[in-house]
Amino acid sequence: MEKSIWKVNGVKIECIRGDISNQPGIDAVVNAANAQLRTGGGVAGAIHKKAGPGLQNEGRKYAPISPGEAVITGAYGLPNRHVIHCLGPVYGVDTPSDKLLSSCYKNALKTAQEKGVGSIAFPAISTGAFGYPSEQAAKIAIKTVYDMLKEPGGIKKILFVLFSKKDYFIYKDIIDNMTV
Ligand code: ADP
Question: Between residues 5 and 139, which one has the greater pLDDT?
């Protein structure tokens, strides 16, 4: 499998090409959610399809969420312990989009740490239906995660799961060129 790994303070940051709904061995997967925490297209569609109706039922308790927010639920039929739902900004509509996108990654990691999650997988939040340009979004995702890892926490592995070859290579180039 195509992959790229980078270690920061003992934490593995890795990017792979794949499907976020098929990541066994990872404690928590992040959903590029909609405000209502319902099924939809893209990531939310894949996650809800595999998880089954329990995920949407539990999500009702927390909906609606705002751009930049993260909430955690069970994972139901997914091969993980938790799903962390983040609502990304609609590019150029929910502003400032860069700060809101960064908040998604920050809040997802904080929420994960509070629940004792050891490994977490992220999709490229906001880069599908929400229109965020992939390269800008990738830089924000990787920089935010890197900054969060300066503080100690329980997370040992962060995986970025990219659906397209193009997005995978965008992440790989950034990660391969990071020097710590
Ligand atoms: P958003 O509404 O936040 O833009 P989308 O789900 O539309 O979220 O898309 C986010 C990104 O996830 C896009 O780059 C899309 O290609 C990618 N993607 C779509 N399906 C999957 C999947 N099953 N696993 C991982 N990434 C996916």
Answer: 139
